[in-house]
Structures are given as C-alpha cells and as structure tokens.
Design a protein that fits this description.
Distance between the termini: 24 Å
Largest sheet: 2 strands, antiparallel
Number of helices: 8
Bound molecules: 2-acetamido-2-deoxy-beta-D-glucopyranose
Number of strands: 4
Oligomer: single chain
Radius of gyration: 18 Å
Strand order of the largest sheet: 1-2
Number of domains: 1
Strand content: under 5%
Shape: globular
Length: 205
C-alpha cells in the first residue's frame, strides 16, 4: 500500500500541478528589493541573533512551534548556502538529531532537511527527508481516492473536486487516529510535502 502511494505521489505531483494549479507569481507582486545582498545578509544575522535569545538548550528548540522551528532552521541552511558557508552546519546537525525523536511526520521538517542537504551535502539529511516523505505519503489523496471521495485513513467522505480541479494530490494534516474525521489540508503540510517530493526526486535523479 505504501509503495503504491509513493508511486501515486510521484505521478500525481508530476502531472497534476501542470493543469490543475497555477503556481506563477502574481504579476502585481513586487519581487524587487531596494536592499543589496550585503544589507540583507546583515539583516538576517541580526534577526538570527534576536531569535536565538529564546533558544532553550534543554529542548534543543527555540520557544516556538515545531513548524516554526523548522522554518527557522530552513532559513539558516538557505543562508549558509547563499553565502557558501558551513558556519551553522554543526548547530543544525545537532538541532535536527535532537528534534528528530519528537517528530511525528511533519512535512515541514522534511523540507528543512532538504535545505540542509543542499547547504551541506550531508546525505543523512537527504535520507531523513526521504523517511519523512515516506511516512507522510499515506496522508496524500491519490487520483482514485479523489474520484471516490474517500481516503483509507479517513472515516468521512469528501467532494472529488475543489474549484473545478481534482482534489488529488492534496495532503491531509497528519493526525493520530482520534482525529480521523478531520479533513484539514493546510499550506504548511501541502506546500512542504510537494516541495519535498520535487527536491528528493531532483536529488536522487
Ligand atoms: C518595487 O519595489 C522597488 C523597491 O522597493 C521600488 O523601487 C519600485 O518602484 C517598486 N515597483 C513597483 C512597480 O511598485
Ligand atoms: C545561538 O545560541 C546558542 C546557545 O546559546 C549558541 O551556541 C549559538 O552559537 C547561537 N547561534 C547564533 C547564530 O547566535
Ligand atoms: C514559551 O512561550 C510561551 C508564550 O509564547 C510562554 O508562556 C512560556 O513561558 C515560554 N517558555 C519558555 C521556556 O520560555
Ligand atoms: C469508496 O468510498 C466508499 C465510501 O463512500 C468506501 O466505502 C469505499 O471503500 C471506497 N472505495 C475505495 C476503492 O476506496
Ligand atoms: C470518525 O472517527 C472519529 C474518531 O474515531 C469519531 O469521533 C467520528 O465520530 C467518526 N465519524 C464518523 C462519520 O464515523
């Protein structure tokens, strides 16, 4: 079953976004910045120092949610990649190894591991990302699930389409069994999962 879903994950995510979703940047968004790279690096370092003051050594976490911690670690890894540095490699390795046991499969962390892998070329990050992705895949809506309006981990049915597009490729929020009736699909789950799949495919190809 899991293997079948992995194959579906690849198929769905390969093709569905091509015709069901529009991921282009809206033309009215202003994507230019008046700041130079140096100025942005300076800003980032200041922000990092500020947020780091709430680092809790015993937890190995900043006092925020696990998802927010994942975002922070991602930003640090992306930063090191941009400046071609490894200054935060040890801290990130340590952080991830301490956080890992606490993780129910959170797709955001899969993405964090991808960013870390890209920054530091450490295969452990990539393997972790793949594990998280595999754990998360059963929560994805396959093409057949969408057509049938049902999902093996859910005890409620749902519409096959949303805004005229198939709901296939949607990824439910990971829930313990008692929340089996919840159909929540949220951006942090969905976006991170899709980005993770694409990045893993790219890294392994
Ligand atoms: C976009 O932002 C830049 C930098 O802030 C500014 O110089 C420019 O005028 C903006 N362009 C538009 C179309 O608003
Ligand atoms: C963040 O805080 C920890 C623990 O106090 C310290 O070891 C680390 O160097 C700090 N990192 C940054 C980027 O300030
Ligand atoms: C973490 O933040 C919450 C509020 O955001 C606060 O109530 C709590 O005391 C903080 N915990 C620590 C260890 O700082
Ligand atoms: C199709 O959905 C129904 C509930 O509407 C469910 O009982 C059935 O098991 C589903 N079939 C498949 C193949 O998923
Ligand atoms: C689905 O499962 C949950 C948790 O076991 C339960 O509270 C809820 O009543 C179930 N819903 C249906 C429609 O069976």
């Amino acid at each position: 079953m899991t293997l079948m879903r992995l194959v579906f994950a690849l198929l769905v995510l390969w093709f569905v976004p091509l015709f069901a979703q529009d991921y282009s940047v809206p033309s009215q968004w202003n994507t230019s910045s008046p700041l130079s790279l140096d100025q942005r690096i300076h800003l980032f370092q200041g922000a990092l120092e500020a947020v780091n003051t709430s680092y809790d050594e015993t937890q190995g976490l900043i006092n925020m949610s696990l998802d927010e911690n994942a975002n922070l670690v991602s930003a640090i890894a992306i930063f090191d990649r941009i400046v071609s540095g490894r200054d935060n490699y040890d801290a990130i390795s340590e952080h991830i190894s301490r956080v890992r046991p606490k993780l129910i499969p959170l797709s955001m962390w899969g993405l964090t591991e991808i960013y870390s892998y890209r920054a530091y070329s450490d295969n452990l990050f990539l393997l972790d990302a793949k594990t998280i992705w595999e754990q998360y895949t059963p929560w994805m809506i396959t093409i057949q699930d969408a057509e049938n309006g049902s999902h093996p981990l859910k005890n409620v049915t749902f519409p096959s389409q949303c805004n005229g597009a198939s709901v296939a490729g949607g990824v439910f929020v990971y829930h313990e069994d008692e929340k089996i009736g919840s159909l929540a699909v949220i951006a942090s789950t969905q976006g991170a999962y899709m980005a993770c799949v694409q990045a893993i495919r790219y890294a392994l190809s």
